[in-house]
Amino acid sequence: MPLVDVNSESELRKFIESERKLVVSFSSSNVPQCDHVYSVLKILSEDSADPEIAFVNVDAVAVSEVAKQLKVDSVPTVLFFLSGKEINRVSGVDIPDITKAVMNLQSMSNGSSNDLASRLHSLVNMAPIMLFMKGSPEEPRCGFSRQIISILRSNNAKFGTFDILQDEEVRQGLKSYSNWPTYPQLYIKGELVGGVDIVRELAESGELAQMLTIS
User: Fold this and answer.
1) How high is the mean pLDDT in each 10-residue block of the chain (215 residues)?
2) pTM higher than the cut 0.85
3) Which has the closest alpha carbon to 201: 137, 142, 148, 134?
4) Per the structure, how many domains does the chain have?
5) Domain range for residue 34?
6) Secretion signal: which residues (predicted)?
7) What CA–CA distances, in Å, run from 44 to 9, 37, 104?
8) What is the CATH number of the domain that holds 134?
9) Which of 107, 127, 150 is at the close of a domain?
10) Is the peptide bond before 76 cis (omega within 30 degrees of 0)?
């Protein structure tokens, strides 16, 4: 589906609440970097052979209430949805990450036919370094998540995150998938590293820095 410009909050909500895969770019005509992201998404939308995925561009000011609810505080920011739930976001003009996120979204199954194991596999491989946590890096919802974010940032790691509080299916399913009962969970190249205690030990020994470099 070609990239669509949406100008109202009600129309945007309809897209988000739909059962389809969705890419939403929050932009502003006053920010030149948004034009670059727009051009890339336009090409990706035209090249996509997946009939289930929709690409939408919105002016962040025109949909300010929705932007606030989704905690979009800068442009350009691109959000990725599956069955009405946000599964990833990319802030700024990071074209490789945007392209990879689109490819990952296209590879996922949608709706009630979604195979959970396949979805979890896609999620843990969403980024080379992937953290499943409570809340977001900007607003951690538990002390352990806050600690592991601090450790990763102190090692200058670039990582993706998933808020397990926003998706109960993933929250419960990942425990069985990884055979690890608690959160946060850190993955590197799709492999479970562990929780905050293990990550802290690896950081103190210097092994974590090496693992992050290899990734």
Assistant:
1) 92 88 95 96 89 93 95 95 87 91 77 66 92 95 96 94 90 85 95 96 95 79
2) no
3) 148
4) 2
5) 4-107
6) none
7) 24, 11, 13
8) 3.40.30.10
9) 107
10) yes
